[in-house]
Each structure stands twice: as structure tokens, then as C-alpha cells.
Specification:
627 residues; Ribosomal Protein S5, domain 2; Ribosomal Protein S8, Chain: A, domain 1; 3 domains; five-stranded mixed beta sheet; 18 helices
Length: 627
């Protein structure tokens, strides 16, 4: 009987490995950037075309490779980062897996150019689907250039599973930001389709964070610094008033490696306990330095999860250090029973010097004269020797008894009450007439500020006010965007709203749809937009919340066709602006909401496919009482 187990050919094994290593173009970006960092480069360029589907190129000025290493780096399990198994617990580099380049070369056209500083000539290698096409010497600058073209050219099924260019580009930005934030000592530049997207010079940690996210990031940051035997914590957290709905700007770095940790995230949220609104997420950029032998990085294929020896101690230190920083910069409330607030120096007096008091003396004051009191007070109102001459003795009040004449006489009152007339307040106008109010009282009732009950011929209908309002707003927004007839209300003072570069990219994609809903964009810059008009049913204070929620909902991808994009925007805006559970509605508002719901094309469900109302028949109620 023949054997059924056999060794896989190298090209098949490489494609299987590529399925684990390379999920999308962003995976290639991550591997190549980390290799450039490990090569001790001080200048790294990332060049992208068509969101990485056509080209991903990384150029660095690192130490490069010789001819042998250039050929060997494409073999499976080939790495310069480790030699023994014990090295896995003392890692100071990033790419140590040894399958990245072999996997990338198996599913793309690869061109690599590399040269060491002491060599006269470099090496140029071209590979197509694991097949070496050419290898030759070339005149090259110091460092390595790695170009990956036509990703997944030999695996069409995998290429079909890629998302839109906008989504893939955003994933590339995420990977670029993670590497750039971890290494402020390296100059990074990023080009997409010939346009420069980022130019990050060598800087401090704070400057790197501000350069990456632009806007008013510098005003939001509170520094965190703590040095212990277990861990050294440094970085920045945002002030509570700048918290967002989404978790976009949250970064943990352990030994300059980006990681994801729900446990450490919980420690950060515990430090903000009591000073954040419900559902708000703070931004943080935290860098942890721990002994390499106290962590295990090799527990996840993407190396973004780390196992710590003493997680509980790390949790407590991280929580305490953030809480201390928030309190130190007067961001968090502090109870100090020994402090007297009355002794605090007002802020506008902090830098002022105290004025010397002046002494004024009345040289003419005589304490033994009869009018000493009068003269004393007269002298205190003016300075100099002429103060007594300005005093005038008040004239004596003549016949003061006349002031009290007639007080003992009885007051005269009218004998008949008919003679008394009172002014009455006349209601000149009413919002609704009595018949309307009586009709409203009889037809709608609000229960627990959540449901609206209205009687119908067969029983009663119970409406969920939040879901019903979502349906009404959704159809209004969708109609406005479809027929392009949305009305706007002009703002007296335009709004300046600041966003990160990634969020500005999203807004650029959504700008036309937002204009159709009623927004008027007066100006659009690299880090902020100026809005001079908003939809009629949106208040000025809701604009930033609405756009933030919209960007959060679209983080997972913008639909390709315009109808799906409009549908997504309408749903997000309806969710943000709908009346919330717990809001008390007037009788007229309840009526309008119920009437608006049943005027919709599909009143049965909310935009998120949840029921908006239920009906109860009289027979069903009778059965309840018959039990």
C-alpha cells in the first residue's frame, strides 16, 4: 500500500505560509518597515500605489546585505535575528519569524536592491512567485530597496477578497503609524500615488505624536512618567474633555513594539473612572519598557499580543501612574482636606507684585474738640491739611415731629367689595387650542420616558420612541441625499473642527454626501474643516458629536457605490440625532413622532432592523384579566 503522507513542494509550502503572514497589503508594509528598522536605518521611505495592490516599496539607508545574504533572505526560516531557542526570550528586534520575505516572494513580483557601506557594488534580485528571475551586480546607494508589485497575482481568489482601496489604504496608515510612533529617532516619509502623505522628521516622542495626528493634538496630551523595577512607563494620555466615541488613537508599545492588550486597556479606563462620559474613549500613547526575559512575544502569528510574567503588578503601576498624571495636571478631581481654597492665588494675580500700602494722616484732627467725630470722618474722606475746611455741618431738621403726624389715625377702606378692581392676566395666545390639547391628552401617553402608548380601534399600539425617531430621521436624510434638496441653516460663526489625517481622508470621501444632507463646508485643510452651514434638524453643539460618530461607524470601510454610502451616512446620523431613552416628550411631540413614524415607507422596523412598535388587542388584555 502506497504512503499517503508526503512532503509539500517548497512553492506550495510558501503559499500556505503566505496565507498566515500576508492577509492584505498592510501586512507587507508591516514586515518591510520592521526589517528596515532592524537594519538600523535612520531614514525610511514608504511608497504605495493603488493602496498597495500595485506597489509597496520600502527604501532605507540601513546596513544592507552582501550577495550571499541577499539570496539567502528569501529562504524559509532564514533570519538574522536569532540563533538559539533561548533568544526568543531576549528579543531586541522585530522580524524574527524567518518566513516573511519567503512568503511575500511566493505571491508577488519582488525586486530587491541592497548594498553594504564598505562594498563598491550592490546586488539586485528579481523574483516572481518564488522563482528567481535574475540576480546581478549594480551600482546602488547604501541600504536596501524592497519593491513588492502585483500582490496576489498568482492567487486570484485571495485578491478578490481584498476590500476597497480606501479600506486597504487605511490599514496601511495604521501599520505605518504604529512603526513611526515607536521610533521617533527615525525619519519617515510616506507617499501614496505620488502624493506625500507624511513627512516625519527625527523628533521627540511628543513631537512625533503631534506630527502623526496633527490638529490640536498637542493641547490634548498629558505626560505620563513612572520608573519602577518592574516597568518604566512613559508617554501621553489625553484630557477627558477630548475623549472620543471610537478607539482609534490608542497605542501600547512594549520595548518599542506595538501590542494590543485588553487587560492594559482596562487599567487605563480604571484610571479615568469617574471623569469620562459613558461610552467615551480616551486617547493614549504609552511606552512600556520591561526586561526582555519577563515577556513572551511568540504567542500570536502577528506578534501583536504579549504575555507578561506579572500582569497584576503591571496593571496597578499603569493605573496609578496615569491617575497620578491626571491629578498632577489638575485634570482629575482631587480631595485634599488640609487645603484651604481661599488661600490660593488667583490665576491673573499669579505673576503680579504686591503694591506697598500708603499711609494718610490728618494733621488738623483734634480728639478733644466737640465735633471730633465729624471732623474725623470728614478727614478720612480726603487727604491733606485742607480736609477740615471741606466739611459742612448738616442743617438741623426743623419740626421733626411733623413727620409722625397722622400715624395713629385709622386707615380708610372701601365698605363694599364691588368697588375693588384687580388686574387680571389675559392669555393672548396659545400654542394649541383647547380642543387640540384635549384630543392629545386622550390619544397619546408616555411611559417611563421610553415608550409612547396610543389607543387604536382594536386595542393599543406601543411605540419605542428612540427607534421610531431613528426611522423618521433615516428616511428624511436618505430622501435629502437622493433628491439633492437638503436645506441648511447658516451659522453666525463658522465652526472649526480638527481631525487626524486618517479622519480627514474619510471626510474627503464623504464630503459630497454630507453636502447633500445640508452641511456647508467653507474650507477644508490638512487637519481641520470650517463648517458654515448645518442641516436644519441639527444643532450647533451636535455637529462635532455627529461627525465623530459618523467617522467611528465608517472605520470598517466606506461602501463602494453612492447609494450604500448614503445609506450608511443616513443610518449613522439618525442614530446620533434620534431622541434618546429617558427623554421626556410633550404631548405634541409624542403625537408628531407617532404620526411621522406611520407616514414612513417602512414604519415596522428601525434602520437597524429592530421593531419600532408592537400592538396589543383588547382580546389579549381581556385574557390577562381572565386568569
Amino acid at each position: 500500500m502506497s504512503s499517503i503522507i508526503q512532503l509539500l513542494p517548497d512553492h506550495v509550502a510558501n503559499q500556505i505560509a503566505a496565507g498566515e503572514v500576508v492577509q492584505r497589503p498592510a501586512s507587507v508594509v508591516k514586515e518591510l518597515l520592521e526589517n528596515a528598522v532592524d537594519a538600523n536605518a535612520t531614514d525610511i521611505k514608504l511608497i504605495i500605489k493603488d493602496a498597495g495592490k500595485s506597489l509597496v516599496q520600502v527604501i532605507d539607508n540601513g546596513k544592507g546585505m552582501n550577495v550571499t545574504d541577499a539570496r539567502l533572505c528569501f529562504e524559509r526560516h532564514a533570519t538574522s535575528k536569532i540563533r538559539h531557542a533561548e533568544d526568543l526570550f531576549s528579543l531586541h528586534t522585530k522580524g524574527f519569524r524567518g518566513e516573511a520575505l519567503a512568503s511575500i516572494a511566493a505571491i508577488a513580483h519582488v525586486e530587491m536592491k541592497t548594498k553594504q557601506d564598505q562594498e563598491e557594488l550592490g546586488t539586485q534580485i528579481v523574483i516572481e512567485g518564488s522563482k528567481f528571475v535574475s540576480q546581478e551586480a549594480a551600482v546602488l546607494p547604501k541600504g536596501t530597496s524592497f519593491a513588492v508589485k502585483n500582490l496576489f497575482f498568482n492567487i486570484p481568489a485571495r485578491r478578490n477578497f481584498l476590500k476597497s482601496d480606501t479600506v486597504e489604504y487605511r490599514h496601511i496608515i495604521d501599520e505605518f503609524q504604529r512603526v513611526a510612533l515607536a521610533h521617533p529617532n527615525i525619519h519617515f516619509t510616506f507617499y501614496h500615488n505620488g502624493s506625500e502623505m507624511y513627512n516625519l522628521p527625527i523628533s521627540t516622542l511628543r513631537q512625533r505624536v503631534v506630527n502623526v495626528f496633527s490638529g490640536k493634538t498637542n493641547e490634548k496630551l498629558v505626560p505620563v512618567q513612572e520608573d519602577t523595577e518592574i516597568v518604566t512607563v512613559q508617554g501621553f494620555v489625553s484630557k477627558p474633555e477630548f475623549a472620543k466615541k471610537n478607539r482609534g488613537e490608542q497605542f501600547f508599545f512594549v520595548n518599542d513594539r506595538f501590542i494590543k492588550s485588553g487587560y492594559l486597556h482596562h487599567a487605563v479606563m480604571a484610571a479615568y473612572d469617574g471623569i469620562l462620559k459613558d461610552g467615551a474613549q480616551p486617547s493614549y500613547f504609552l511606552y512600556l519598557s520591561v526586561p526582555p526575559n519577563s515577556i513572551d512575544i511568540n504567542i500570536h502569528p502577528t506578534k501583536t499580543e504579549i504575555k507578561f510574567d506579572d500582569e497584576s503588578a503591571l496593571y496597578a503601576i499603569l493605573r496609578a501612574s496615569i491617575k497620578h498624571s491626571l491629578g498632577q495636571f489638575n485634570v482629575a478631581p482631587v480631595l485634599d482636606f488640609d487645603r484651604d481654597a481661599n488661600l490660593d492665588t488667583p490665576y491673573h494675580y499669579k505673576d503680579l507684585e504686591g503694591a506697598m500700602p500708603t499711609i494718610q494722616v490728618d494733621s488738623t484732627f483734634n480728639p478733644f474738640s466737640d465735633d471730633k467725630v465729624n471732623k474725623h470722618y470728614a478727614g478720612s474722606g480726603s487727604s491733606g491739611s485742607g480736609s477740615s475746611s471741606s466739611y459742612r455741618k448738616p442743617a438741623a431738621t426743623a419740626s421733626w415731629e411733623s413727620l409722625y403726624v397722622g400715624l395713629k389715625q385709622e386707615p380708610e377702606f372701601p365698605t363694599e367689595s364691588a368697588e375693588i378692581s384687580f388686574e387680571s392676566e389675559e392669555v393672548t395666545a396659545s400654542l394649541f387650542n383647547d380642543e387640540e390639547v384635549e384630543h392629545a391628552v386622550q390619544n397619546v401617553y408616555q411611559i417611563h420616558k421610553k415608550y409612547i402608548v396610543s389607543p387604536i380601534k382594536s386595542g393599543m399600539v406601543i411605540v419605542d420612541q428612540q427607534r421610531a425617531h431613528q426611522r423618521v430621521l433615516y428616511e428624511q436624510f436618505l430622501a435629502n441625499m437622493t433628491v439633492h434638496q437638503a436645506s441648511s441653516q447658516q451659522l453666525l460663526f463658522p465652526l472649526n473642527l480638527y481631525f487626524s489625517s486618517a479622519e480627514m481622508e474619510l471626510l474627503a470621501e464623504l464630503k459630497l454626501s454630507l453636502i447633500n444632507t445640508g452641511f456647508v463646508f467653507e474650507e477644508t485643510n490638512n487637519d481641520h474643516v470650517v463648517i458654515s452651514g448645518i442641516p436644519v434638524n441639527v444643532t450647533e453643539s451636535e455637529v462635532s458629536i455627529l461627525l465623530e460618530q459618523l467617522l467611528s461607524d465608517l472605520q470598517q470601510g466606506i461602501p463602494e457605490n453612492s447609494f450604500s454610502q448614503n445609506d450608511t451616512i443616513a443610518k449613522s446620523m439618525a442614530k446620533s440625532l434620534a431622541v434618546k431613552t429617558g427623554t421626556s416628550l410633550t404631548i405634541k411631540e409624542q403625537e408628531n413622532l407617532v404620526n411621522g413614524l406611520f407616514a414612513c415607507k417602512d414604519p415596522n422596523v428601525s434602520p437597524f432592523q429592530k421593531p419600532t412598535f408592537i400592538t396589543m388587542r383588547v382580546e389579549d388584555i381581556d385574557k390577562k384579566f381572565a386568569l
